[in-house]
Amino acid sequence: xxxxxxxxxxxxxxxxxxxxxxxxxxxxxxxxxxxxxxxxxxxxxxxxxxxxxxxxxxxxxxxxxxxxxxxxxxxxxxxxxxxxxxxxxxxxxxx
Length: 95
Description:
Elements: E1 2-8, H1 15-24, E2 31-37, H2 41-44, E3 50-53, H3 61-67, E4 72-75, H4 78-83, H5 87-93
Pfam family, one: PTS_IIB
Protein name: Phosphotransferase system EIIB component type 2/3 domain-containing protein
Domain Phosphotransferase system EIIB component type 2/3: 4-88
């Protein structure tokens, strides 16, 4: 099963985005989607195949990439995050 972690500043604002992503992937049981506060990414990042970063965590993207060189990291734009547009996320994980 492919594990997807969505990380935002507190883990709360991403709950609606996680819901939208789960709905988009509902027909495919090969994905597990979870959200967490960014403060936990260095403790739990290895548990995920994909690390999705909310825009407010973008200043840490280089640190995340250095800590998890074997992980696919997707940085969301403000528009994607605010509109809950998960199309690019789905495209990235299904490649």
